Task: structure prediction
Amino acid sequence: MSLHGRKVVKDSPPTLLLILSCLLVITINGFCSAAPLYSYCPNPAQYAQNSTFESNLKLLLLSLSSNTSISGGFYNTSVGNDTNQVYGLALCRGDVNSSVCQNCVEQASVEILSSCPLKEDAIIWYENCQLRYSYQRFFSVMVYAGKYPPWNDLQPNVSNPQKFYQILNGLLNEVISQIASQNSDPMFSTRNATAPGIGIVVGMAQCTWDISRNDCENCLRDAMGDLKGYYSTRQGGMILDTSCDLMFQVSSTTGSRRIVIIVISVIVPVLVLLAGSCAYYLWRRKRRKGVFADEKMKETTTPQQNQIDLSELPLIDFDTIKISTNNFSDTNKLGQGGFGTVYKGILPDGKEIAVKRLSRRSWQGLEEFKNEVILIAKLQHRNLVRLLGCGLEGEEKLLIYEFMPNISLDFFIFDPIKSSQLDWRTRYNIVDGIARGLVYLHEDSRFKIIHRDLKPSNVLLDKEMTAKISDFGMARIFCEDQIIANTRRVVGTFGYMSPEYAMEGIFSVKSDVFSFGVILLEIISGKRNSSYLKEHGQTLLAYVWRLWNEGKAADFIDPLLITYSRTEVLNCIKIGLLCVQRDAEDRPTMSDVIVMLESDWGDLPLPTEPAFALGRVITQTDQSSTVICSVNAINISDVTVR
Result:
């Protein structure tokens, strides 16, 4: 069937029943979120069942379901290569929490396969999110093609159309102007206006984060024209587009008595209908989701088969942990970070543990907690910290690790007394251990993992000073064929971020390589990268690059290193410079680094200028905002710092 000359996806009878049963809910509360608002399959082309494209699509949907909520409500990526590459994007409403966002994207990733079966292009909208995939790269491209969901035709007419039109016009202009004037994501805004004799009119506008703010405004202006042209006499209307959404609805204040009468007269049949149809819908959704999950489990290369149920991990009683840490006393505190505090504990059997108690105010919520548990639980490598269990009690979330008696690298390397205990051989072994841990994460584990927050405080040291990488709360799983990803919510620690990640939100294994290079140079110099601006008026990378070019690289070596192999140390400086090169493609992989650590000086390629080497603030203007960034004094829009 069609609506205003545009294609509308035909609903099955149970879905139509659900929409009808939602009428009462819509009247009182607004949009009904149980079913999709609209779905659209623009291309008649179909992919073959059990094809590589289908496998890549399922991997893509899994990635969108897993990453959108922890990326702030927007995530885009691609899976596969050549003709089998699939591009995808998910966006949540700017005013919903991460739990609602994840649930919505999960539901959309299941429903889109039913709404557009075997289609190479598809998009689906819900009240709280939208999801799109295509065989074509559509990121950062705005081509307006507004859609009119059936919800519009359910809205009653207003009593005074001429007056309402003026109020609506002002409201829509205001909500669009609010987005146009914002300097940060999400590109989302809401506004209210009073329509005398009608009620409160609520307006909402939103754009996907990959388009420019100018394109966003143009998209919304086009949508506004359609919205006023078709629905300015209605008490509600919405236009859904691939790049923007615009909607309004009247919240009645004068018709409340009429609503109460309607509720009393139809409450029983409507509730029965609502319960029956919703039960059917949820049963069907669960069945589809189960089938979808079963199909994903059959893919031998999918990350899904490596995910675990929390029941597979030992759950340690909260009171036991509380007692073991002396009620989380300060005397047991080992360290504190952006996500919480780490305490030493001793279990009843005498086993020493480290307990990470996540802060209730920290950005890392249940999703990041589950992310860290899932990632670490089945990773087995001598250079990764081992997770022993977890604890949950109300809002309390605990991670229990093996205890590291020498705490972390930063505890030693930046302390003028303790760093003297680190001779060159110990430092070299720590470097080698970090490198081997990263090789495992990037290449040898069951799935490719990008750490995204590698720094000295996240490199723990056991009693033999063996390096163990920890803190996977910000880590991301990459699919087998995935190389890079993009996020508009940059997380991590300034000074260790690669330039493409800090300034553009692009991350890959080469992002971790950059962080490793900074740590390697810090280990050699014995100083924090943040100390160089104060001492030398240059960043760490600018300083070592200047010494390198002047043939004075030996001046960079920590004076506390009394005996060392000059050739070996200079070789490591060269490796560090190779890892922090400006262009990510020029940086070696971590497996290359392992080979380099065992190679002769003359066998290594010459490094090019590192990122931020001039020691000045670098300014880059992208399509949506101005990003100002330097290694040690950074002001970046949409960055979560730790």
About this structure: The chain has four domains: 2-139, 152-252, 307-403, 416-641. Residues 256-298 form the longest helix (43 residues).
